[in-house]
Here is the input.
Amino acid sequence: MIRVPLRPLARILPARANGENPDAIERENKRIRHEEMRDRMRARAESRLLILGMFFVCAFVVVGARMGLLSISEPMEPRAYAPGASISAARADIVDRNGALLATNFETHALYAQPTHMIDPVAAAEKLVQIFPDLDHDRLVRDFTGKRKFLWIKKTMSPEQMQAVHEIGDPGLMFGPRDMRLYPNGTLAAHVLGGASFGKEGVSAAEVIGVAGVEKYFDNYLRDPDNAGKPLALSLDLTVQAAAERVLWGGMKLMNAKGATSVLMDVHTGEVISVVSLPTFDPNNRPRPAITGDPSDSPLYNRSVQGVYELGSVFKIFAAAQAIDLGLVTADTMIDTTPPMRVGGYPIGEFNRKNYGVISVTDVIMHSSNRGSGRLALQIGVARQQEFLKKLGFFEATPFEIVEAAQGKPLLPKQWTDLSAVTISYGHGLSSSPMQLAAAYSAIANGGYIVKPTILKQDVRSLQGERVMSAKAAADARMMLRKVVTDGTASFGEVPGYAVGGKTGSADKPNPQGGYYKDRNISTFASMFPTNDPKYVLVVSLDEPVETSGDKPRRTAGWTTVPVAAEMIRRLAPLLGLRPTVEPTTLADITLTSSN
Amino acid sequence: MTEMVYGAAPVRDGEPILPKWWRTIDMWSMSCILILFTIGLLLGLAASPPLAAKNGFEAFHYVQRQAFFGCVALVAMMLTSMMTPVMVRRLAVVGFLLTFVALLLLPFFGTDFGKGATRWFSLGFASVQPSEFLKPGFVVVCAWMMAAGQDLNGPPGRMWSFILCVTIVLMLALQPDFGQACLVLFGWGVMYFVAGAPMLLLVGMAGLVVMAGTVAYSSSEHFARRIDGFLSADIDPTTQLGYATNAIREGGLFGVGVGEGEVKWSLPDAHTDFIIAVAAEEYGLILVLVIIALYTVVVVRSLLRLMRERDPFIRLAGTGLACTFGVQAMINMGVAVRLLPAKGMTLPFVSYGGSSVIASGIALGMLLAFTRTRPQGEISDLLGRGRGR
Here is the structure.
């Protein structure tokens, strides 16, 4: 086949003429064409096959290179992804004013299970229930043998329990390190500290978040990793707090009260040295909030800031102090307290329908005369009374730095009439918390300056707030308060050497159905000591106390709260470093004789 | 005289089978395949004891099974490779028809072994996965059709093969078995490419794929996130891929030592889909590179030998077989190193699996039969040994 004939028939026609079979020639032609076509296609396929081969070489080289890169990189541990790793568990400690530990962190472990890794789930469940009796055996078995791949079993546990779990030896039971919040003093200052619980939980750490009290109020500060080594110093004094709780608890039991609260405040700085609310709880094991019933019955209820009640006669001193401050009266101005006295159509009565006659302002406070303080309030007038009480902080929830404080919103009359002014002057018609009362009494005690109650330790010794009354008025008011203890309703409040001054208040508790209970009251004693140069204000309040040593049950503060408060002062004043001023007693008449 | 009395001494035209086979077979590829098979057994020793322990067999139960199936596969491979291409084609067509029917019957008689996809026939002592056997038959049938289509006055073979391909892909996708469907589609595509797909079509398709990908990436957030997640370096270490990646890292260059690996205890598919991870962990990068090199040699050598082949059927069928074999290995390993999204695919001849290894044996036997040295009408063939066929 040197050349292909141009005309296909060129060979066939001569062949036919020669008697040869032309089909053979045709087949030969076809075969040649076929061969040529094959060669052409092979040439084309050759390049494409080459491309394919190159592709495979490249692909395998890439796979190999990737393998190489992977194998020289560092392996990482299989660990739970994302949230766990980024949780910061460092939380600052909380200490009292002397640096004693109130709240700290404790390293413990959470227990979790990965049932896919468990060898003998049923036996493991059985042993776990022996270690933790509160676990439900059937449920554990169900969880371990079911489809779950991960479950938490315990949020925290003791080292002994952890060792016991270790000894089960099941690889599917694992421990996640935890920083647990620990309150080493148990129930002490529970309402201030509040409590903490776990927020985001991971296998390697869990977030600790405050749920109440200062733990919640200062949550951001405490959680800030920058503050890890800087504990939060509170104004509380652990020793005083412990003594106060002890004595108040005893007093509450003695007086058959269902609750009690006390606030001990530094009159110059507003620092709260001790604040107690009973009944109490253990912040290490914070109870669940009550869903039903009166929230004030729950131990979580903080009476010192949330317990907003009409506090009664303790308010009379404000009317007296303001009247003196305004120059309307002096301590000796005579006030007519004889009945009848009607304001806005309502008669104003006295306790036990007494009639004190015409008495001095001092005696009004000493005898706790409603009509006397009402007269003073009428002289002062609504506007000035409002302004005065507002400055003292009775119009807003106390700025005390625990989250519950904001819930203690004072109740004010909707329309502040003359009648309101009169009733408020003896503590009815305006509800406030013991914390607010303590702050207001501090203003009288420190010579007329407003203080802001605080739980934080203050560096300065005196916070000079706005002046709310003259030093003279404050001094006169203190003198009257002293007189209440020496000669008036709070005679049980005398503590030798500490010159206690104070005012009692017994207010009937409001009935939710309307009106007031006759036999349930809030008995309050607001006191300061020593009265000649007050350092501290102590407000004690008992909820529904009753004293039954006499013929008939006695519920007034003079019989119930005052003795408790006196006992507290007797115990606390030495702890606070106050020296009793021992008045020289009259020497016994000794006659030195000689018999010779 | 003697001949007249006793008849002629029996003389065969042509060469005896075995010597001819030995002379013309691609020794390199066959050696590589045998080495791969040995490595597979070795890795089976490492990877299958956890599975045996789980299923209550003695430790090397699966290794013994694999050795048995492997021997069957090797015999099948040898026998197939001794056949002539025409013989291979005939048997493959018959085999294809049988497996096609088997595939059709799968929804009625198949079992899914609790894996959610009906891919197996249970035969009591063993299970058969027809789609594994279908692949080589399909490749041969398609190659035949395409080759016939290229011939003078041939039928529209490309169209027929395309219809057949789509049918099988749909059937596999319905099982669902997207891995095998992709392989079948890829095998057809490669053959079509070699059979002379118009360049314009190829360029157009490549452009279309790139454009569709770009559009999907920019418009669909879901798609974008999946791609990003795949491309990102971070990987959740508790997933199968995470374990596999970690195993490769643990292994380093020389491995942690025979039997010291951990990954086989964590991965349910350590003996099949992630066997390369086991290899990397216990024997290190060295063995992995050896395995990759073996696959490369088989595929590239076969393709190079096919470049000289003039018979279009042999060229196409050989290309299809070699490429499906290579791409299956590539996908399996690419998944383990996170070059490709997760897709269950066995490593041919290395992973555990009776159907897989026997089907691979048959397919490679065919490939060896197709890549045997033949006279190609070249000058060396004409002048050379002159023995030819």
In short: The first strand of chain B starts at residue 121 and ends at 122.
